[in-house]
Amino acid sequence: MNQPFTAATPPMGWNSWNTFYDQIDEKLVMSMVDAICDQGLKDLGYEYIIIDDCWQQKTRNEKGELAADPVKFPHGMKYLADYIHEKGLKFGIYSSCGTKTCANYPASFEHEFQDAKTFARWGVDYLKYDNGHRPLSLRTPELFRRMGMALKCSGRNILFAACQWGQDDVHRWIRSAGAHTFRSTVDITDSWDSIVGIALKQLDMQGFNGPYCFGDMDMLVVGMSGNSVNPEANQGGCTNTEYLTHFALWCMLSSPLIIGCDIRKMSKEAKAILTNQHLIAINQDPEARGCYKVEAFQNPEAFILVKPLSDGDYAIGFFNFSEKKADITLEFWDIGLSVHSGVALDFCDCVEETTISNVTETFTCSVDAHGCKVYRCRLINA
Ligand code: GLA
After folding, report:
1. Using 50, 70 and 90 to split pLDDT, how confident is the model at 2?
2. CA 362 to CA 368: how far, in whole Å?
3. Separation of 54 CA from ligand 1 center, angstroms?
4. Residue 256 CB contacts under 8 Å (≥ 6 apart), including other chains
5. Coil, strand, or helix at residue 37?
6. Ligand 1 center to residue 130 CA distance, Å?
């Protein structure tokens, strides 16, 4: 999708870390480039192919520059970038604000301007910038501002994806450091508990989220289903109900949508989730408004999220985090529609693609354990 500005809506793409950890190489990345096109993901807006940690040589080259591991990436990064660009996609790479990356490869501290120029020369369009091994003598805002500045001076438009794990009240200062996205939580794992923990932490943070600087709830685990060589992320997998809830939450909460599974081998169900156009449209809504939470009456483990959309519709999601199927009721009063408003809602189910028309005052839906129902609702005069 061509955006007039970088990250006007949450970035979408694929990242190597969740599934492939340090087992990455040129062939693998090129096969992901092919898959993102062949699986129809590119046409839906997934455009960044991001190589995470472990792409580097263990030491800088004779000019002090970062260099790609010659065994994993025999033709170098420019070659890969050219392949990615030829396919109409964008190229993402990873570094850290510390002396080393989390996996102990050389990182960008005191090399920020040099590295930004190297990345620009290679044709990088997206930099994931991590938080590991950072010098404690400097505050994190200073370290991230440095790379923000270095990218601006690099001569190339590079999306700055800060990965500061939600520490140090990052949401308060990261927008002004020039970042386009900021990791607002700890690392995700392929488990329901991780999804719940991350989502609950974000519900109160929507006011800090918006165009050109989105809270990044970390990469999607949809479709991983325990298939990963990453020992941290591989925590057994989730059910398809849980993966759908995960995707719907990331869409409602305007998180970047960065796929982490092996997109060459997605199950039918995982593909249906990741390619749900109605949910993606909610995530990519041009106004990118945050959503607010409505408590579900007498059900502490259920809640409703409401997100105003740019065409006048509202996305309304019903989420059930409990262990039992539950009826969840929305009182229209809670979203600003009083009994006297004379306004009704049409509820279009984003998954079933069915519509319930002309609803007034309340709406109740039955939601599976760990499940969700997300509707695109149109306001109509009753
Ligand atoms: C940190 C980040 C992860 C990943 C690893 C790589 O843990 O939060 O997303 O990039 O580093 O080492």
Report:
1. very low
2. 20
3. 10
4. 10, 11, 12, 13, 161, 181, 214, 216, 217
5. helix
6. 7
